[in-house]
Amino acid sequence: MEKIKLYTDVLKVKEAPKWGYVFPLVEYLVKENKKLLEYYEIVTKVQDADFLALPLSVEYLLQNGQQKYYEDFLALAKKEHKKLLVFTAGDIGKTIHDADVITIRLGGFKSKLPENTFIMPPFIEDPLEKFQLEFRLLPYEEKPSIGFVGHSAKGIRKWTKEGIVFLKGNIKRLLGKEATDFQLFYPSSIKRFHYLMELKSKSKLKTDFIFREKYRAGIQTEEDRKRTSLEFFRNIQQNPYTFCLRGAGNFSVRFYETLAMGRIPVFVDTDCQLPYSESIDWNKQAVIVDAGAFESIEEKIANFHKQLEGDRFQQIQSENRAIWEQYFTKEGYFSNFQQELKKQV
User: Domain Exostosin GT47: where (predicted)?
Assistant: First the structure.
């Protein structure tokens, strides 16, 4: 297999205060991930490379007085007529409008993303292995059952708290202390509560919801973390469908957790770009509802569910688990990403 050759600054990786600031592909190659070394190699001469890879996340460099480092890396790529791979981390990310930059990020708004943008999943541990849960196929029942466990609340205090967090973030961006995109106010926990209450009122659906007033139930101890995490994944395991809505960033971690459990996401599309849409027909693997047409969700779920009568219902559960294993583990994602890069060499 012909490998993709990357030129990067391996020594720069040591500067990062933690691995979260390192471009994950660079991180895994530095750590000598055997699977990914079958698809990529790091070269020491820029002339030998297919692409250059910025070693640390772009917003980390910009926030820490290293804009020139980024600009020099990009200038080198342009000089050698090669494209620069840039990773932007965290919930929000940084949008870069430059034809010579390929951006890898967790989310963002589809209508505003440059063409050379690839959505990367948050890499989670396999919940079946971590919590010793059995992968089992649920039988088809006439009325679809939707689960949810998580941060969802209402009230003036919650509006105020989320508003303050939003303002602080944009003030930091205005002052140059944070180099991510400016955001519009989106109180995700309040939106989530509203949507879930709408679902509970629908007669064609069964719901299995656990509302938490604080993120991760306000856990204090490692024991609490294990207990609430197990409760979270057992809820997904027990229901064929799980409600998924964006959080602080415009993407849903729960979407990928649902796939990992072999279940079907009910995904509210808030102008999201889902990864590998050219390879995966997401409308066949998930119930996708436009946020502007949420009033149609009952019929959308009911119609989707009715089409799964018979063997197809359990088949889609197996497919979604296989999709997570093939595309959304770190090895799976970047081995498939190699094929995307080959199209641009």
Answer: 227-295
